[in-house]
Amino acid sequence: MSSGQEPTDLVWYAAYGSNMHADRFGCYLAGGIPAGASMVRPHPGCRDRAGPRRAVPVLLPGGIYFATESATWSGGVAFYDPALPGVAAGRAYLVTAGQFSDVAAQEMRRPPGTDLDLGPVLRTGRHRLGPGRYETLLSAGTLDGRPLLTFTAPGRSGDLPANAPSATYLRTLGVGLAEAHGWTAERAAAYLCARPGAAGAWDPPTVAALIASGGA
Fold it and tell me: d(Cα 118, Cα 121) in Å, to the nearest integer?
């Protein structure tokens, strides 16, 4: 590849959870433990540890919900369901297909290093790799001529046990929304507190103060 020439296999990874926070996403690319996480072992990172070529705000049709239990943050984590009403606010990173594969592997709790076959998800819009969380690939179309991809749970909102997210996790999402969309702490808090799993467990003023204060 000549100097200044982009790889031909670039894709957009649409993050809708904690990876909207650039520093947190960087731990998947370069390895490490995200700030505030309760995990013991660091993420191994990608084979290609370069940062994303671009990062842009996106709105995906559908919504997010909080469910299961996170070994990284404790509490529920975000999943995307395109069948939910409304839109899901996210952040798209332009990465290589290999980087997307390695990020997906880490989210699937698998070792990175194997390129995913993206053909099925590009053809059908949805491809289930396994039964676990984040083991279903989704296509949200294209952005600037490149595929826009993400991953989520195999079922629908309500198929998994709802679980309220932790304070640290909510703060990470809130900062990510501010970084990506320029939202105020109040707007981010209202959005997050209305999502299934968080609704009724958190109130917007508490979450807004949490995001604005920078800590739990």
Answer: 6
The token duo for 10 is: 């670039």
pLDDT tens for each residue of the chain, 216 residues long: 334 566 679 999 999 999 999 999 999 999 998 887 777 678 999 999 999 999 999 999 999 999 999 988 999 999 999 999 999 999 999 999 999 999 999 999 999 999 999 999 999 999 999 998 899 999 999 999 999 999 999 999 999 999 999 999 999 999 999 999 999 999 999 999 999 999 999 999 999 999 998 644
Q: Which stretch of DSSP H or E encloses residue 169?
A: helix 167-181
Helix and strand tally (H, E) in the chain? 6, 8
Which of 134, 204, 176 is CA-nearest to residue 24?
A: 176
